[in-house]
Amino acid sequence: MQALIWDVDGTLAETERDGHRLAFNEAFQALGLPWRWDERRYGELLAVTGGRERLLHDMATRPDAPADPDARRALAARLHALKNERYAAIVAAGGIPLRPGVAELLDEARRAGLPMAIATTTSRSNVEALLGAHLGPGWAAGFAAVVCAEDAPRKKPDPQAYLQALAGLGCAPAEALALEDAWPGIRAAVAAGVPVAVTRSVYFADGPVDGALAVGPGLGAGAGWRGPGRPPGAGRIGLAQLRRWHAARPRP
C-alpha cells in the first residue's frame, strides 16, 4: 500500500445530517423559502451526489419552485453558495467533529510518510472549513492532491475524482487504498481500480458495498469489521490493519 485516498463527507466526519442538511435549511430560510429538509428527506436526496444537483433534483418535485430552467439553476447556485457559508459557520462553532479514529489515522500516516490525497464531490470551501478547523491552516500540505467538486465536475460514482487523485499521487490504482462511506464513492473507487475500505456512516449504514475490500462501522474500533484474513483486534483501525487488508486484495 503506497497511498491513502480519503473521501470527506461521511468518512472524515458525519457532515451530512447535522452539517450540510442544517445549512441547506438555513439557506432556505434566509431566502424566505418555506422548504425544509428533514432527516428522512435528506437521506433520500443523498442518492443524488453534489449539493447543487441535489437542490435541482428537489426543485423538480416542488410546484413552488421556478418553472424556468435558467431561473431554477440560478436559484440553486444562490442557495448552494449560502449553504456553504452556513456550513462553514457550523464547522467553526465546533458542530462537526471528526469521526473516531480519523485524526489518529491521519497522524499515523503522516508520521509514516505515507502519501495521502482527498477525492470528494463536495466544494473546496467545505473541505477547507472542515480540515482547517481540525488540522489547522496548513492542513493542505499533508496531502499530495486535494480533488474537489470544482476539479472533478463528473460526480461520484464517476471515477474522475479518483483518477485525478491518483495522478497527483503518482500512484498506480492497485497500490492505493480508498476510504469511503457510501455506494457512490465505493463505485467510483472500484471503477478507478482502487481497493476500498468502507467506514459506514449514519445515512449509509445499510447501503450496498459491492466491490469493497473491507467494511466496518468506523475507524475508531475493530469490532464489527469484516475483510480478508483474520478479524482485526478491539483497538482502532490503523495502518497495519489497512496494509494487511490491502495485501490480501484480489489480484487480476
TrEMBL record:
UniProt cross-references to InterPro entries, sorted A to Z: CbbY-like, HAD-like_sf, HAD-SF_hydro_IA, HAD_sf, PGP-like_dom2
Species of origin reads: Piscinibacter sakaiensis
**One MF term in GO for this entry?**
hydrolase activity
- Indicate what this protein is called per its UniProt record: Uncharacterized protein
Task: Report the coiled-coil segments.
Answer: none
Xref: Gene3D superfamilies:
HAD superfamily/HAD-like, Putative phosphatase, domain 2
